[in-house]
Specification:
Elements: H1 13-16, E1 27-30, E2 36-41, E3 45-51, H2 57-72, E4 90-95, H3 96-101, H4 104-145
Antiparallel strand pairs: 1-2, 2-3, 3-4
Helix pairs in contact: 2-4
Amino acid sequence: FASQIVERHNKPEIEVGTSPELLLNSVVIHRSDYEHVMIETAVNSVRMSIKVKQLDEMDEILARKFSRFLMLRADNFIVLRRKPMPGYDISFLLTNFNVETMWKHKLIDFVVQFMEEIDSEISSMKIQVNERARTVGYQFLKEFTS
């Protein structure tokens, strides 16, 4: 969909937002108070922003580090935005070019699988951190008991 303002420009309207008549209604889906997804649609693009479940400070740190790790490699994930929307942890941007060049069902499967597995990845990282802390504490305190 070409720009209505500048000739020969084709940018995602959800990002530019110059023509409000091209933006469609956004939808927010809450799984709980701590995790939700916002889906914003336009004529030529869709932006999905994900808020990951963060119950304590460790979850917040791990989610921030994990999302930063992914966003630094956003060129490898073609649909991942480098900067999430305010209030969210990770954002995807699907343009009409992505949909034309990629298989639609595989693209949808990737986003759904990502959303399903990010919670389990952060939970497993939290378990590993706690396990390392327990081992370090045990080794440290063992010196005092000997």
